[in-house]
Design goal:
The complex is a heterodimer of chains A (about 200) and B (about 850). Chain A has about 200 residues and is mostly helical. Chain A is about 65% helix and about 5% strand. Chain A has 2 domains: about 100 residues, no CATH class; about 100 residues, Arc Repressor Mutant, subunit A, CATH 1.10.10. Chain A contains 8 helices and 4 strands. In chain A, the strands form 2 sheets. In chain A, strands 1-4 form a two-stranded antiparallel ribbon. In chain A, β2 and β3 form a beta hairpin. Chain A is globular, with a radius of gyration of 18 Å. In chain B, α18 runs antiparallel to α19, α24 packs across α25 and α29 packs parallel to α31. Chain B has a 6-stranded antiparallel sheet with strand order 1-2-3-4-6-5, covered by helices on one side. Chain B has a 3-stranded antiparallel sheet with strand order 7-8-9. The radius of gyration of chain B is 34 Å and the shape is globular. The longest helix of chain B is centred in the C-terminal third of the chain and has 45 residues. Among the domains of chain B are: about 60 residues; about 80 residues, Phosphorylase Kinase, domain 1, CATH 3.30.200.20; about 200 residues, Transferase(Phosphotransferase), domain 1 (Orthogonal Bundle); about 110 residues, Serine Threonine Protein Phosphatase 5, Tetratricopeptide repeat, CATH 1.25.40. Helix content of chain B is about 65%, strand content about 5%. Chain B is built from 35 helices and 9 strands. Classes of the chains: A mainly alpha (about 200), B mainly alpha (about 850). At the A-B interface, α2, α3, α4, β2 and β4 of A face α1, α3, α4 and α5 of B.
Amino acid sequence: MREPDSNEVTGLLDALAGGDRSALDKLMPLMYGELHRLASHYLRGERGNHTLQSTALVHEAYLRLVRREGVHWKSRAHFLGVAASVIRSILVDHARARSAAKRGAGAITVALDEAAGLPTQPSVDVIELDSALERLSRLDPQQSRVVELRFFAGLTNDEAAEVLGISAATVKRDWSSARAWIYRALTAGPENGGLRSL
Amino acid sequence: MEAAQWRRVKELFDTALERLPADRARYLDAACGPDAGLRQEVESLLAAHDAAGAFLEAPALESQARDLIDALPDPNLGRRIGPYRIVKEIARGGMGDVYEAVRDDDEYSQRVAVKLLRFGFDSDFLRQRFRAERQILASLEHPNIARLLDGGTTAEGQPYLVMEFIDGLPLREFCQRRRLTVARKIELFRQVCFAVHAAHQRLIVHRDLKPDNILVTADARPMLLDFGIARALDPDAPSRREAGTALLLTPAYASPEQVRGEMAGTASDVYSLGLILFELLTGELPYATGGQAPHQVARTICESEPLRPSAAARRGGNRKLAASLAGDLDNIVLKALRKEPERRYASAERLAEDLDRHLLHLPVSARPDTTAYRARKFFRRHRGPAAAAALVALLLVAGLAATLWQARRAEAERARAERRFEDVKALAAAMMYDIHDAIRDLPGSTHARQLLVGSALRYLDRLARESRGDTGLQRELAAAYERVGDVQGNPVLASLGDTRGAQLSYRKARSIRQALAGAHPDAAQLRDLAADSHRLGLCANALGDLPRAAADFQAAAALDERASLAGGGPDADAALAEDERLLGFTRAETGDTAGALAAARRSVDLWLKLSSAGGPWPDRVRHRLPSAYGTLAFVTMLSGDFPGAARDQANVVAMLRQARQAAPNSATLRENYAEASYYLGLWQAGARQDRPALASFADALVQFDALASADPRDTLSPRFAAFCRVGIASARTRLGQSSTALAGLRRAQATFDRLNGAQPGNYYVQSGLADTAEAFGDAFAAQRRWPEAVRWYRRSLGQWTAMSRRGPLASSDSGKPARIQRRLAHCLAQSRPPIGTVRSSY
């Protein structure tokens, strides 16, 4: 198995930062493999005592793939941005692969937090979320990206702002209405969510 | 909806959100005007916002973690690395992934661990460096250090290292599974220190010590992995620059100098040992670095002061652990964790020595020599004579506290007085906790402990009178009353046996907590209040006041239920389950069988619900669920339903058997299992299931005999063993094998006689003698040896009569005398020989 070469990843990131969109196509599979392996490693229990921290995971992937001091900040921002899309597609692919029959209780199901045995926030049906995000991106692509960065890559408002090149206050506002919109779309059911007409 | 419309909706939503909820309608009236559709859209978004709670707030990988678990087949499995074939993955690390592999080119398939290195190390360099390091590492033959066996690069150019395969658990997991005490953990950790020291003496530094690099074998031998590897891989090793490896290290366990990229010597390993010890003792790390980016972690490590281990334990809610860590262990760990390498322990060996001194109650080097400190050490070593001195000190402290309180009331030098008041309060608490615990197990300390309690109560009563309005102080007071009550007479803890005194203290605590919870009925306050009612229920139960006990447990259950509804989480549910369990017990004894069954069932249901949650919680449920089922079985038995009781009890035995497989060395589990099997036998015998009963008693007997021979002072296990023998004999008699019953009964008889000498007047020993005699009678009757049967039945009856003169018989025994009377009458009728025959039946 070939380990992704850090120079290759860094080069692609630099190309992406320079506006070369085709670099993205080469970058995604490299990052996919690494993030997927990291995530399943975290999850398979060697570090099972710790909650899976997506931020830490993304940072670790970054270290492992790029591993170079002084990478241009723009490359790092691009990395985080790509990581968010990659994690989104990992989760969606994974959810699709699982039997559709297992779903059906509605878009939101209450999960138990394994670490504490405590009921926590509802866990989200990723496939529903994914299509809601698709619809949202038609209304406002930036808001869809904000959700992707915050939810899938676990970035803070400040980090998301850095990636998108907008202010943290805008991120916060975008997040707030996007979250409410998605929540409404998911609780209202997939067939009519977000399609109310004015 | 169009993008433009959405922009408008969003804008109104954002602005409305900034208003107070009450003002929103007015704002929307003005902003939307007659556009009802727009308004409805914004309002529905606002409603969604309010209902969304924490929706999407936790990042996906955290909330979706378990959905994600899947085993991607690892392409490395089955791959050949040099002469080794990879069998399975062991771990993934910063430097590379570790696999279990076998060497299958010779007849002995040797198991090894292969580490496939991740980054593009220069393979020529690596080979050279590896050879050089091999020379050094070869000198490092140590029983606690895993050996580096081989190394090279694969055909594809990927470098790898081959190490001795260690069959063990990572340090953290080992301690959790074995539930090691603090002292046992320290013993284990000291072995680690000695191994590190041995390496240091050969000038080999580990540089990446962390719990995952320490495996513990089944015979509790810690094994250090990866020794010398960081150095072997360091391109600048001769100049000892660390920057090259800094990124490979696990940042959370790196020392400040490593994080800064400075020289990492033996002192860095000492620092890492300090971190490992911290985590071993508290389950946490001294810095909260989780989720931080590496540069933030680095800053935290270099700049912030570490938490004290006892503070971490207290924050985790474990007060008892906190008390045992406060003092020496805090100081030892913090000395190892000093930012300046030269202020740490000079060697890992010194650290181990200090830990040893702590275990021996000798002064440790990690603490400034204050008088109080020396005194406390002296006190621990010479417990007896010092007890009196300590009491005098406590009285002084109590007086001082009261005086300072006055000073505080007078508001003279208020700030200073308050600070000193806090100090004195802390000192008083330490006295109450440390001194009491230190003298608790001393023979003859009862009087001293009573004095201690008396002083503490006077001090607390005085404070209580003046604490009005100070909720923080009131909470502390309630906790102190609870503590004193526990010492006086908590029926389920080792105590002074003064249950009435305990009841008074708990009532004081409860009335304080009632006022606190009345003002702020949140889950935590309700839980505390419920715990007081629970304690009072235990006291009333022990005092034989069953109606009051039932009322107390019911009150506790009602409060815990409120706490659960107020968001108290599984802790509240667990407490509720325990309230219900004891309520079931108590009601059963008052004769309220239906109420008892309902409560016991509820307890079982709650534990089942809790145990269906994932994570570490089931560990705590593991021993609670059986005890709830056991109560249900007992209550069912009292209702006369022996088959039902046997079914529930069979669950208990099955669960404990499973628990024992996970922890085969736990003496407590063994006791619980043995006892559960014994009761299963009893309920089965009651249900006339004689063969299963025989098997259950035999199972229990094996365990009790082993327990009894392990501890000669244990009087409970021999007693249970004797009861098992009686149960086996009775079952055999009923199965028509009475001739095999007698030997076991003779052994039971001998045991009960011996115990009767040691514990004269003990109800259970006395009833054991009566039961044995009855079983003898049954066995002889079955063999038609009537005169012997008559003699034993009379003996049993005489025993019960003597016992009932001393007090009422237990509810499960009360029917026995009448039963024996009937059998005796039958034997007498049989043994009256017809005229002319010889009395030849024996």
